[in-house]
What does this fold into?
Amino acid sequence: MKIAFLGKGGSGKSTMATAFVQELRARGVRVLAIDADHNMDLSYNLGAEPAIFLGNDPERIKEHVGSTRTDTYLNALKIAKDHDIVFALTPADQYTASVSIELEDGLRLITAGPHTDRVRSQEACSHSLAAPLKVYLPLLHLNKNEVVVIDERAGTDPVATGILSGVDLAVIVQELTVNSARVAEQIKSELRLTNIPHIIVNNKHAGIEIDTARAIEAIFAVRPLNVVTV
It folds into this structure.
């Protein structure tokens, strides 16, 4: 199962994603944590000081699947599917191993990374840092006891730019404020266009964060694929 955490900036999505990773590990589930936000909150929350960044060479995945650097990610994905190319966690394939770090047995981390010189010089936009996920996520094969947890950028961009095309479930983390509810509705509208299942988790009611364990059980209850609950 591949789960993405979305929401307005400051809504608590990184905190919720971190808690979900920790709960999955406590249940014996193997996890790939993907930090798609250039702020890298999920990486730091998990105690990592990443030095390997997906965004340092985002076009490399195109070459890996037999495409060219100037090709689109969509066409690179098509080429990969035509050649039955897949990625895996256990054991990690060559590409996965090269763009991730192993924090502990059963927990890997991929970090999109901070803004690069190409972004700063306007040769590329900040979306490029996580763009390889457009190819990687749809081709990532998971075993029964494996889950991917993605901490996405704030707002609707991750959905509208196609980065969530390989995701099974989107969790929208929403504060009980007018602005947060508005952003959540925008995200829901984009998700409906892509047919990605979603649930909303309300957070920070009256300044107090919700019980993450209850939120996690709500996520488990959806179970569209192969999450193992213990």
